[in-house]
Request: fold
Amino acid sequence: MRIENDVKLDFNDVLIRPKRSTLTSRKNFDLLRTFTFMHSGRTWTGVPVVAANMDTTGTFEMARALSAHKMLTALHKHYSVQDLQEFFSTFDQPDFVAYSLGIRDEDFDKLEQVLDAGLGDNFNFIVLDVPNAYLERFVLKVEELRALCPKHTIVAGNCVTNEITEEILLRGADVVKVGIGSGSACTTRRMTGVGYPQLSAIIECADAAHGISNPETGVGLVMSDGGAVYPSDAAKAFCGGTDFLMSGQFFSGFSQSGGVLVEKNGEKFKQYYGMSSKAAMQHHYGGVEKHRASEGREVLLPYKGDVNDFIDELFGSLRSTATYIGALKLKEFAKRATFLLVHRQLNRSLEQYE
Ligand code: 5GP
Reply:
């Protein structure tokens, strides 16, 4: 047994130090980022905030709303080939939608059907998603996916440490998804004891990814996934060096989100559940398999209306952070940021693990 003594940080363990700024107006701040991906060779410009591939957030309705802001939606994997055919017949924004799959044989069989149906040009991103990217089988599946889809930008994860970040990139992913146990609807930390504070995971994995490059295209990238509760957490994630930010919580509870709308005592609520919660497993697989424990939970969130209002708030907050730290572009957040360690002043982290 070994103990790592250096302190690992969550978003609520830090604040960002204000710095001298030459920004004259928040409007001048550039939220767009342009990346050239190391394996696919594609160049992408957009706001690097992504709706998670959960069936409560990665919906067709969300993709229509977010693409108008140049944001990406990772569609959940439970849409049928026919659902996808119908959706793509009226949605033509391949840069702002991702197809998601897991590593089961049936996931790869379905991807082949999707490609055979001629839908491959309708999405430029593919998210290969498992809760635990440390499995040998996972990295082999990254290689298999890269061979099957050489021109797609592959996002793969999840992991939280440098060595596996490097391996996933070297096996063929363009972007590594970072986060274990950080999700708001996730109970992995409580059920298994495994996890890594999200801000430290970002800092460590981004450092590893940015050190891996293809001289003709670009460097390896990371996508922080989970744990962002407030817009300030998005700012902290970008300051910590993440290239993309994926969130479920940010995009849950809206009219464009999935989940059932419930009315209680005249107030409206919307269901949000983890993809391995009993609710999700019951819905998609008819129950929790015997050898598995559910590592997700279900919550009812106050109904929040239209997601466009939240997007305005998120963009406004990022612009405001930019004026405080003197960043002219989102790209400069990581360069400009100095974090101050604070004593969990918002005291959210324990709440979050409940
Ligand atoms: P949030 O934005 O809600 O904090 O986190 C969203 C992320 O939580 C998802 O993108 C996914 O990585 C993770 N997640 C979603 N459902 C589950 C689940 O049932 N169990 C676990 N362990 N993680 C989940």
User: Anything to note?
Assistant: The chain has a mean pLDDT of 94. Residues 52, 54, 131, 158, 179, 183-186, 188, 225-228, 246-249, 274-277, 295-296 surround guanosine-5'-monophosphate (CB under 6 Å). The CA atoms of residues 269 and 303 lie 5 Å apart. The chain has one domain: 11-15+29-253+308-351.
